[in-house]
Amino acid sequence: MKRYIFALMIVAAILSGLLVGCNPAPDAGRPQDAAGGRLNVTVSILPQKYFLERIGGEHVIVNVMAPPGADPHTYEPKPDQLVALSKAVAYFSIGVEFERAWLPRITAANSTMLMVDTAQGIERIPLAAHHDEHAEALTSAAGGAQQAAAELDPHIWTSPELARVQAQTIYAALTQVDPAHQAAYKANLDSFIADIDKLGTDIRATLAGAKSHKFMVFHPSWGYFARDFGLEQIPIEVGGQEPSAAELAALISEARANGIKIIFAQPEFSTRAAETIAREIGGQVLLIDPLAEDWLGNLRQVADTFAQVLGG
Ligand code: ZN
């Protein structure tokens, strides 16, 4: 009898060992993070963190791939960021350049993670070449025409109009992974949309008196913002290329012809070309940041800056 019980104990021990070995971690496969039952989600850039927090509220913890100061065109996620994805229930991509190389690895890092393309339903516009000579140079190069035509503007978050579309997509995804909090997500979405609408109205009022509509900027981050508010962006750099000496000269005369005194740049990129142009036209460089985390406050501030620069 003793031997029989002993054998049973061994079998039980082996079985429980097997069970523990096979069991996933206590909260794996469940949408809620262990800490406070919040959803762990990951986004590519900081303005998306703002969007997710507005709609997810207290129910989400948001991780960002490209940290402050990083360039989302060339960013390379760190190995520990990929490891951390094992806790994420959803990844919200937006179409920034680093995703092209990294989305397959991000997707592979967690097979249960919902992949959400927040650029869905948005028609992206081609990135404008900074002036005609540049476009011609591109199209005349072998295969250049196709490449130039395929380059679509990824900066969809700088437009309040397009932020509305992204907000709806985020709401739908959060509701899908966490239907229990749908009512909260809907209330947060409605409040965010109301803020976006007010932002649009306020910016239109801010820019109503602008005498000029053309602005020059090193990196073309503001194409959709410009489209929303009837402005025209003249980019210095396109597709990551610094302008040549001849292109710089053309930009300088374009700035002079349009009475441009301020050259915009952003903290993530070199201001060298912008400084050169500013020096030649007796103007100055001003930094505006398309990647600020406080999306709403930042766009308001950028609109004020545009209004001052374009003359009221
Ligand atoms: Zn960019």
Chain-wise SSE layout:
Elements: H1 2-22, E1 39-43, H2 46-56, E2 60-64, H3 79-84, E3 90-93, H4 97-108, E4 114-117, H5 132-140, H6 144-150, H7 160-177, H8 182-207, E5 214-217, H9 223-228, E6 232-235, H10 245-257, E7 262-265, H11 272-281, E8 284-287, H12 295-310
Parallel strand pairs: 1-2, 1-3, 3-4, 5-6, 5-7, 7-8
Zinc ion is lined by residues 73, 155, 219, 221.
Describe the structure.
It is a single chain. The protein has 312 residues and is of the alpha/beta class. It folds into two domains: 146 residues, 3-Layer(aba) Sandwich (Rossmann fold), CATH 3.40.50; 100 residues, 3-Layer(aba) Sandwich (Rossmann fold), CATH 3.40.50.1980. Helices cover 50% and strands 11% of the residues. The chain has twelve helices and eight strands. It has a four-stranded parallel sheet, with helices on both faces. Helix 9 links the parallel strand 5 and strand 6. Helix 2 packs across helix 7, helix 2 packs across helix 8 and helix 8 runs parallel beside helix 12. The radius of gyration is 25 Å and the shape is globular. Bound molecules: zinc ion. The site of zinc ion has 4 residues, from loops. Zinc ion (ZN) binds next to loops.
